[in-house]
């Protein structure tokens, strides 16, 4: 279980923030504008993914499968930059599990290779394979799954029986359907689902190609709907936007909580150091597609975006305005300069992982036991993320706040517990 990493800070006076109230309002407006743009880009790329999935299902071929995979990869880049909004905003955190939950017991959805399948313990649905099972019993109730719809996925299958590993929706369910299992362990290669798994009638491999196609279409439609919902939350009149604009102090805490929690417990701990400690590719974030290097990079970039108050959109335009950096610089220029430098160092360390993966050294290979090069690359980024978190704490102190709680991780806070 994660522990909250309590950032006990110097000083309790709110005098600096009282003096900078007008500037704070501008900072929060920039924060919401970047959120709106990031979720809009996520929606646009998810709609493109839906179009590519439609082409794959209508005319399965090696080319249309490649096209759908490319669209999925493109959709991940803007979405990962929004993850910094998760921890400080309850609306986002409550919603996030529908679109980005991982790891998943993929046998809930489709066929798996039993020899290469590591499922959660005590999960009776881990091998359900709903694509091959049009009727089944769940919690004593007979379920009619003859028609695979977004409602079946979201209301019945996702986190069925209250088990988080029963991930039926979101990016990673779609990823599994497009790539299939990665059976290579810490060796080279991603998942390699054949395009014939989507062929209707003669030539279908894997069985139930019509239902597999239906599931893929429904899951992609659901992703688009979920992103439409979150975009609306950050537009004018949206609940997430109103919560921070109407109370800029709460908005400031949301910014800092999101930065610190993603930086420390989530990314440095749960997404990076834990997998390295276990040497386990099952802990890889985008494990079917071998895209984890990009997920990590864009998470780090998202943290820097909100601090600097600048986001580069998929169309090349830039959303920018008064930033948290500006606010911190007024109260402690040294803290601001230090944090900006450390954010750059983190992005550079994550970029080194990205470059290595793009040159043939995939993230799951970096996790292999005895891989000194992989460990060095990953730990360089982990250390940078932990270091910048300490400066996020300093920024909190510089702004006169008394305490902010960041998410923790046993891998960082209590390593012995990882192996218990």
* Oligomeric state of this protein: single chain
Q: Which stretches are low in confidence, meaning pLDDT under 50 for 5 or more residues running?
A: 1-15
CATH domain class: Mainly Alpha
Residue share in helices?
A: 55-70%
Radius of gyration computed on alpha carbons: 22 Å
Class based on secondary structure composition and strand pairing: mainly alpha
The outline comes out as: globular
Question: What is the count of helical runs?
Answer: 16
| Largest sheet composition | 2 strands, antiparallel
Would you count the extended β strands for me? 6
CATH architecture: Up-down Bundle
Q: Which superfamily, in CATH terms, is the homologous superfamily?
A: M75 peptidase, HXXE motif
CATH topology: A middle domain of Talin 1
Gap between N and C termini, in Å? Answer: 12 Å
Question: What is the residue-mean pLDDT, rounded to a whole number?
Answer: 93
Which percent range describes the beta-strand content? 5-15%
Order of helices and strands: EHHHHEEHHHHHHEEHHHHEHH
Sheet with the most strands: spatial strand order: 1-6
The domain count comes to: 1
Protein name: Peptidase
Main location: other
Domain Imelysin-like: 36-391
Pfam families: Peptidase_M75
Walk me through what this model shows.
It comes from Paenirhodobacter populi. Its main location: other. The chain has 420 residues and is mainly α. The chain has helices spanning 15-19, 21-58, 62-81, 90-100, 150-157, 171-179, 209-234, 239-245, 248-278, 292-308, 324-331, 333-358, 363-366, 372-398, 410-413, 415-418; strands at 4-8, 135-138, 141-144, 310-312, 318-320, 403-407. Strands 1-6 form a two-stranded antiparallel sheet. Helix 2 (21-58) crosses helix 9 (248-278), helix 4 runs antiparallel to helix 7 (209-234) and helix 10 packs antiparallel against helix 12. It starts with a strand and ends with a helix. Residues 1-15 have low confidence and may be disordered.
């Amino acid at each position: 279980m994660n522990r909250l990493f309590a950032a006990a800070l110097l000083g309790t006076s709110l005098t600096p923030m009282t003096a900078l109230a007008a500037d704070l309002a501008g900072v929060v407006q920039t924060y919401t504008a970047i959120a709106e743009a990031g979720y809009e880009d996520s929606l646009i790329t998810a709609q493109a993914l839906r179009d590519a999935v439609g082409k794959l299902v209508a005319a399965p071929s090696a080319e249309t499968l490649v096209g759908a995979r490319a669209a999925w990869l493109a959709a991940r880049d803007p979405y990962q930059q929004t993850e910094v909004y998760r921890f400080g905003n309850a609306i986002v955190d409550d919603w996030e599990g529908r679109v980005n939950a991982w790891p998943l017991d993929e046998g809930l959805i489709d066929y798996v290779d039993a020899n290469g399948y590591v499922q959660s313990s005590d999960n009776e649905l881990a091998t359900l394979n709903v694509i091959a099972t049009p009727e089944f019993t769940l919690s004593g109730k007979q379920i009619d799954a003859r028609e695979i719809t977004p409602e079946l996925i979201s209301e019945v299958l996702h986190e069925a029986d209250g088990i988080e590993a029963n991930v039926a929706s979101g990016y990673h369910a779609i990823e599994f359907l497009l790539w299939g299992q990665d059976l290579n362990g810490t060796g080279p290669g991603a998942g390699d689902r054949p395009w014939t798994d989507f062929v209707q009638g003669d030539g279908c491999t894997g069985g139930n190609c019509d239902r597999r196609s239906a599931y893929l279409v429904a899951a992609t439609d659901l992703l688009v709907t979920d992103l439409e919902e979150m975009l609306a939350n950050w537009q004018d009149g949206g609940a997430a936007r109103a919560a921070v604009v109407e109370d800029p102090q709460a908005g400031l805490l949301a910014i800092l909580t999101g930065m610190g929690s993603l930086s420390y417990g989530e990314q440095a701990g749960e997404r990076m150091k834990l997998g390295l400690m276990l040497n386990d590719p099952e802990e890889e974030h985008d494990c079917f597609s071998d895209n984890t290097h990009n997920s990590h990079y864009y998470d780090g970039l998202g943290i820097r975006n909100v601090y600097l108050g600048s986001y580069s959109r998929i169309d090349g335009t830039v959303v920018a305005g008064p930033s948290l950096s500006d606010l911190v610089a007024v109260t402690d220029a040294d803290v601001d300069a230090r944090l900006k430098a450390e954010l750059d160092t983190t992005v550079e360390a994550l970029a080194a992982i990205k470059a290595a993966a793009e040159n043939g050294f995939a993230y799951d290979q970096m996790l292999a036991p005895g891989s000194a090069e992989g460990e060095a690359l990953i730990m360089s980024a982990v250390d940078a993320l932990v270091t910048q978190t300490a400066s996020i704490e300093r920024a909190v102190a510089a702004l006169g706040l008394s305490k902010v709680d960041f998410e923790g991780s046993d891998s960082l806070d209590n390593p012995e517990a990882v192996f218990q």
